[in-house]
Amino acid sequence: MKRILGFAGSNSSKSINAQLVANLLNRLSADFKTEQIDIRDYELPFYGEDLENEKGIPNKAQDFAAEIEKNDAVIIAINEHNGSRSAVFKNLIDWVSRHNRGFLTDKKILLVAASPGGSGAATAMAYAKTAFGIFGGDVVETLSFPNFYDNFKEGEITNSEIASEIDSKLNTFAQQI
C-alpha cells in the first residue's frame, strides 16, 4: 500500500494547517497508509554555515528527512506569517536540504495552505511551490483554504464549494501517486 506523510509548517499547538492536514489524510486513509507528523518534534537551532561546519547536521534534521524518504507522497500545509512562510518551517527546510538537497525527489506533493483571512496564505504557497521543485518534488496539486474559522468546524469542512474543490484535488493527487 502506498504511503502518504502529512505535516504543517507551523509550530503552533493549535495550527489550523495541522487541522487541515489531519482532515485530508483522513479522507485518503481508506486507500493509502497515512501518517501525520508534527514539526515541533524536530526543533532545530537556526541554520548557519558556521554551525553546520562546527557541529554537522543535527540528528533531528536527518530524522525528518528519513520520515519523508519512507513515503511515496507528501501533504504539506504551508502557514503564513506576515506574508511569508514561517521562520520555523524555513529553518527546517534549510537543515534538511543541507543533509540531502534532493530530499523530495520522486515525491508527489499536495501543497495546501490555510489562513484565517481571505488570502489563503497565497504568498507563502507561491514560495513553496517553487522551492519544492528545487528539492526534487513534484507538486501535483495546490489548495488555498481561506477564512478557515468560517469554513472548518470540529475537524470538518463546512463550506460545500471548498469541500467539492478538495475532493477534486485529492482525487487528482491520489491518481498521481
UniProtKB/TrEMBL annotation:
Entry keywords, A to Z: Oxidoreductase
This protein's record includes keyword Ribosomal protein: no
Any one GO molecular function term: oxidoreductase activity
InterPro entries the record matches: Flavoprotein-like_sf, FMN_Rdtase-like_dom, NAD(P)H-dep_reductase
Enzyme class, spelled out: oxidoreductase
Source organism superkingdom: Bacteria
Signal sequence extent: none
UniProt-listed Enzyme Commission number(s): 1.-.-.-
Domain NADPH-dependent FMN reductase-like: 3-142
Name under which the protein is recorded: NADPH-dependent FMN reductase
Lineage start: Bacteria, Pseudomonadati, Bacteroidota, Flavobacteriia, Flavobacteriales
